Amino acid sequence: MLMCREATELMSLKQDTTLSLRDQLALRIHLSMCQACRTCARQFNLLHQAGKRHPASLLNSRQTFDD
Amino acid sequence: MPLSATLAAAHFAQLRPRLVAFARLQLRDANAAEDAVQETLLTAFEKSATFEGRSEFETWVFGILKYKILDQLRQQRRQGTWQPLDQDLDDDTLDRLFQQDGHWQSAARPSHWGEPEQVLENQRFWQVFDACLIALPESIARVFTLRELMGLSTTEICKEIGITETNCWVILHRARLRLRECLDHGWLN
Protein backbone atom coordinates (compact mmCIF):
# COMPACT_ATOMS: atom_id res chain seq x y z
CA MET A 1 0.00 0.00 0.00
CA LEU A 2 1.45 3.33 -1.10
CA MET A 3 1.78 5.94 1.66
CA CYS A 4 1.88 9.72 1.26
CA ARG A 5 5.65 9.88 1.55
CA GLU A 6 6.17 7.51 -1.38
CA ALA A 7 3.26 9.05 -3.28
CA THR A 8 5.06 12.42 -3.27
CA GLU A 9 8.15 10.63 -4.58
CA LEU A 10 6.17 9.33 -7.55
CA MET A 11 4.53 12.74 -8.12
CA SER A 12 7.97 14.30 -8.26
CA LEU A 13 9.34 11.57 -10.51
CA LYS A 14 6.40 12.11 -12.84
CA GLN A 15 7.65 15.66 -13.52
CA ASP A 16 10.97 14.28 -14.76
CA THR A 17 10.29 10.97 -16.46
CA THR A 18 7.53 8.55 -17.43
CA LEU A 19 6.26 6.40 -14.56
CA SER A 20 5.92 2.64 -14.99
CA LEU A 21 2.32 1.48 -15.42
CA ARG A 22 2.44 -0.08 -11.97
CA ASP A 23 3.57 3.22 -10.39
CA GLN A 24 0.98 5.19 -12.38
CA LEU A 25 -1.76 2.95 -11.09
CA ALA A 26 -0.52 2.98 -7.49
CA LEU A 27 -0.31 6.77 -7.58
CA ARG A 28 -3.76 7.15 -9.13
CA ILE A 29 -5.31 4.95 -6.45
CA HIS A 30 -3.55 6.85 -3.69
CA LEU A 31 -4.58 10.24 -5.08
CA SER A 32 -8.20 9.15 -5.35
CA MET A 33 -8.21 8.58 -1.60
CA CYS A 34 -5.93 11.34 -0.33
CA GLN A 35 -6.88 15.01 -0.40
CA ALA A 36 -3.51 16.22 0.96
CA CYS A 37 -1.58 14.41 -1.78
CA ARG A 38 -3.96 15.72 -4.46
CA THR A 39 -3.16 19.23 -3.25
CA CYS A 40 0.55 18.42 -3.22
CA ALA A 41 0.35 17.07 -6.78
CA ARG A 42 -1.24 20.35 -7.91
CA GLN A 43 1.52 22.28 -6.16
CA PHE A 44 4.23 20.22 -7.90
CA ASN A 45 2.53 20.93 -11.23
CA LEU A 46 2.45 24.61 -10.40
CA LEU A 47 6.14 24.61 -9.45
CA HIS A 48 6.85 23.07 -12.84
CA GLN A 49 4.82 25.76 -14.62
CA ALA A 50 6.44 28.44 -12.46
CA GLY A 51 9.87 27.19 -13.48
CA LYS A 52 8.96 27.48 -17.13
CA ARG A 53 7.45 30.92 -16.69
CA HIS A 54 10.17 32.27 -14.47
CA PRO A 55 12.27 34.12 -17.05
CA ALA A 56 9.05 35.49 -18.44
CA SER A 57 8.06 36.70 -15.00
CA LEU A 58 11.32 38.59 -14.83
CA LEU A 59 10.46 40.00 -18.23
CA ASN A 60 7.04 41.04 -17.04
CA SER A 61 8.31 42.68 -13.89
CA ARG A 62 9.27 46.01 -15.43
CA GLN A 63 7.25 47.21 -18.37
CA THR A 64 8.66 50.71 -18.59
CA PHE A 65 10.07 50.36 -22.07
CA ASP A 66 7.68 50.39 -24.99
CA ASP A 67 8.37 49.47 -28.57
CA MET B 1 12.24 47.26 -39.07
CA PRO B 2 15.47 45.89 -37.53
CA LEU B 3 16.56 47.24 -34.17
CA SER B 4 18.83 50.26 -34.53
CA ALA B 5 22.04 50.33 -32.50
CA THR B 6 20.61 52.96 -30.15
CA LEU B 7 17.46 50.99 -29.60
CA ALA B 8 19.46 47.82 -29.04
CA ALA B 9 21.58 49.62 -26.44
CA ALA B 10 18.43 50.77 -24.65
CA HIS B 11 17.09 47.22 -24.71
CA PHE B 12 20.30 45.91 -23.21
CA ALA B 13 20.37 48.49 -20.44
CA GLN B 14 16.86 47.47 -19.54
CA LEU B 15 17.43 43.75 -19.82
CA ARG B 16 20.65 43.64 -17.87
CA PRO B 17 19.31 43.68 -14.27
CA ARG B 18 16.87 40.88 -15.11
CA LEU B 19 19.58 38.81 -16.75
CA VAL B 20 21.83 39.30 -13.72
CA ALA B 21 19.02 38.33 -11.34
CA PHE B 22 18.34 35.19 -13.37
CA ALA B 23 22.03 34.25 -13.54
CA ARG B 24 22.53 34.82 -9.82
CA LEU B 25 19.68 32.47 -9.00
CA GLN B 26 21.44 29.75 -10.94
CA LEU B 27 25.09 30.45 -10.21
CA ARG B 28 24.86 31.78 -6.65
CA ASP B 29 27.95 33.83 -7.23
CA ALA B 30 27.83 37.52 -8.13
CA ASN B 31 31.03 37.50 -10.20
CA ALA B 32 30.14 34.38 -12.15
CA ALA B 33 26.69 35.85 -12.83
CA GLU B 34 28.23 39.13 -14.07
CA ASP B 35 30.58 37.20 -16.35
CA ALA B 36 27.76 35.13 -17.82
CA VAL B 37 25.66 38.26 -18.48
CA GLN B 38 28.63 40.15 -19.92
CA GLU B 39 29.32 37.37 -22.41
CA THR B 40 25.65 37.09 -23.22
CA LEU B 41 25.37 40.78 -24.03
CA LEU B 42 28.48 40.70 -26.20
CA THR B 43 27.10 37.78 -28.19
CA ALA B 44 23.66 39.35 -28.36
CA PHE B 45 24.98 42.72 -29.47
CA GLU B 46 26.61 41.25 -32.57
CA LYS B 47 23.33 39.72 -33.67
CA SER B 48 20.85 42.32 -32.45
CA ALA B 49 20.35 43.85 -35.91
CA THR B 50 18.71 40.65 -37.13
CA PHE B 51 15.78 40.98 -34.73
CA GLU B 52 12.61 42.87 -35.35
CA GLY B 53 10.48 42.63 -32.24
CA ARG B 54 11.36 43.19 -28.64
CA SER B 55 9.84 40.10 -27.05
CA GLU B 56 11.39 37.81 -29.66
CA PHE B 57 14.70 39.51 -28.98
CA GLU B 58 14.45 39.09 -25.19
CA THR B 59 13.55 35.42 -25.42
CA TRP B 60 16.55 34.93 -27.64
CA VAL B 61 18.88 36.78 -25.22
CA PHE B 62 17.66 34.62 -22.32
CA GLY B 63 18.38 31.59 -24.51
CA ILE B 64 22.00 32.74 -24.92
CA LEU B 65 22.25 33.36 -21.19
CA LYS B 66 21.27 29.76 -20.46
CA TYR B 67 24.24 28.50 -22.48
CA LYS B 68 26.58 30.98 -20.78
CA ILE B 69 25.32 29.86 -17.38
CA LEU B 70 26.10 26.24 -18.25
CA ASP B 71 29.59 27.32 -19.33
CA GLN B 72 30.10 29.03 -15.99
CA LEU B 73 28.82 25.98 -14.16
CA ARG B 74 31.33 23.74 -15.94
CA GLN B 75 34.06 26.20 -15.11
CA GLN B 76 33.06 26.24 -11.44
CA ARG B 77 33.25 22.46 -11.41
CA ARG B 78 36.63 22.38 -13.16
CA GLN B 79 38.06 24.89 -10.75
CA GLY B 80 36.61 22.95 -7.84
CA THR B 81 34.70 26.01 -6.62
CA TRP B 82 31.52 24.01 -6.72
CA GLN B 83 30.79 20.33 -6.22
CA PRO B 84 27.43 18.79 -5.47
CA LEU B 85 27.70 18.25 -1.72
CA ASP B 86 26.52 15.16 0.04
CA GLN B 87 25.84 16.96 3.29
CA ASP B 88 23.30 19.19 1.54
CA LEU B 89 21.36 16.08 0.66
CA ASP B 90 21.55 14.47 4.04
CA ASP B 91 18.81 16.59 5.50
CA ASP B 92 15.71 15.93 7.55
CA THR B 93 13.13 17.12 5.00
CA LEU B 94 11.28 13.83 4.79
CA ASP B 95 11.25 13.21 8.53
CA ARG B 96 10.00 16.71 9.16
CA LEU B 97 7.13 16.44 6.69
CA PHE B 98 6.04 12.83 7.21
CA GLN B 99 5.22 10.64 10.15
CA GLN B 100 7.00 7.32 10.59
CA ASP B 101 4.12 5.46 8.99
CA GLY B 102 4.41 7.62 5.84
CA HIS B 103 1.41 9.92 6.42
CA TRP B 104 1.76 13.70 6.30
CA GLN B 105 2.57 15.37 9.61
CA SER B 106 -0.59 17.30 10.37
CA ALA B 107 1.24 20.67 10.41
CA ALA B 108 2.85 19.88 7.04
CA ARG B 109 -0.32 19.04 5.09
CA PRO B 110 -0.32 21.07 1.85
CA SER B 111 -2.71 24.02 1.56
CA HIS B 112 -4.66 24.94 -1.54
CA TRP B 113 -2.94 27.75 -3.48
CA GLY B 114 -5.78 28.72 -5.77
CA GLU B 115 -6.05 28.70 -9.54
CA PRO B 116 -2.65 28.24 -11.24
CA GLU B 117 -3.18 31.10 -13.72
CA GLN B 118 -4.03 33.56 -10.96
CA VAL B 119 -1.16 32.37 -8.78
CA LEU B 120 1.33 32.84 -11.61
CA GLU B 121 0.04 36.37 -12.24
CA ASN B 122 0.60 37.31 -8.62
CA GLN B 123 3.73 39.41 -8.05
CA ARG B 124 3.92 38.31 -4.43
CA PHE B 125 4.04 34.66 -5.47
CA TRP B 126 7.20 35.35 -7.48
CA GLN B 127 8.88 37.24 -4.65
CA VAL B 128 8.27 34.34 -2.29
CA PHE B 129 9.24 31.81 -4.98
CA ASP B 130 12.65 33.47 -5.42
CA ALA B 131 13.14 33.85 -1.66
CA CYS B 132 12.29 30.17 -1.13
CA LEU B 133 14.63 29.13 -3.94
CA ILE B 134 17.49 31.12 -2.44
CA ALA B 135 16.79 29.62 0.99
CA LEU B 136 17.27 26.04 -0.31
CA PRO B 137 20.62 24.33 0.32
CA GLU B 138 22.87 25.10 -2.63
CA SER B 139 23.11 21.64 -4.20
CA ILE B 140 19.36 21.15 -4.04
CA ALA B 141 18.64 24.60 -5.46
CA ARG B 142 21.05 24.13 -8.33
CA VAL B 143 19.58 20.83 -9.42
CA PHE B 144 16.08 22.29 -9.20
CA THR B 145 16.94 25.39 -11.23
CA LEU B 146 18.74 23.31 -13.88
CA ARG B 147 15.66 21.12 -14.19
CA GLU B 148 12.81 23.60 -13.85
CA LEU B 149 14.18 27.03 -14.76
CA MET B 150 16.63 25.95 -17.45
CA GLY B 151 14.61 23.00 -18.68
CA LEU B 152 17.39 20.39 -18.69
CA SER B 153 16.37 16.72 -18.49
CA THR B 154 17.60 14.71 -15.52
CA THR B 155 19.86 12.81 -17.92
CA GLU B 156 21.48 16.08 -18.99
CA ILE B 157 21.82 17.22 -15.38
CA CYS B 158 23.68 13.99 -14.48
CA LYS B 159 26.15 14.74 -17.23
CA GLU B 160 26.58 18.40 -16.25
CA ILE B 161 27.18 17.90 -12.56
CA GLY B 162 28.32 14.30 -12.32
CA ILE B 163 25.64 12.69 -10.19
CA THR B 164 23.52 9.61 -10.91
CA GLU B 165 20.02 10.04 -12.28
CA THR B 166 18.57 8.33 -9.19
CA ASN B 167 20.37 10.84 -7.02
CA CYS B 168 19.00 13.58 -9.21
CA TRP B 169 15.42 12.35 -8.68
CA VAL B 170 15.97 12.16 -4.91
CA ILE B 171 17.24 15.74 -4.89
CA LEU B 172 14.34 17.00 -7.01
CA HIS B 173 11.83 15.30 -4.72
CA ARG B 174 13.31 17.13 -1.71
CA ALA B 175 13.56 20.40 -3.62
CA ARG B 176 9.88 20.29 -4.57
CA LEU B 177 8.75 19.29 -1.08
CA ARG B 178 10.78 22.07 0.50
CA LEU B 179 9.74 24.69 -2.03
CA ARG B 180 6.07 23.91 -1.63
CA GLU B 181 6.46 23.91 2.15
CA CYS B 182 8.22 27.27 2.01
CA LEU B 183 5.58 28.71 -0.33
CA ASP B 184 2.81 27.40 1.94
CA HIS B 185 4.35 29.33 4.84
CA GLY B 186 5.69 32.40 3.10
CA TRP B 187 3.03 33.08 0.57
CA LEU B 188 -0.25 32.15 2.18
CA ASN B 189 0.57 33.51 5.62
From TrEMBL, chain B:
Give this protein's Gene Ontology molecular function annotations: DNA binding; sigma factor activity
Q: Which superkingdom does the taxonomy of this entry point to?
A: Bacteria
The UniProt keyword set, sorted, is: DNA-binding, Sigma factor, Transcription, Transcription regulation
Q: Where is the RNA polymerase sigma-70 region domain?
A: 12-78
SUPFAM superfamilies per the UniProt record, alphabetical: Sigma2 domain of RNA polymerase sigma factors, Sigma3 and sigma4 domains of RNA polymerase sigma factors
GO BP of this protein: DNA-templated transcription initiation
> Which parts of the chain are coiled coil?
none
- Name all RNA polymerase sigma factor 70 region 4 type domain ranges: 129-179
- Of which family is this protein a member? Belongs to the sigma-70 factor family. ECF subfamily.
Which protein is depicted? RNA polymerase sigma factor
Q: Could you tell me which species this protein originates from?
A: Halomonas campaniensis
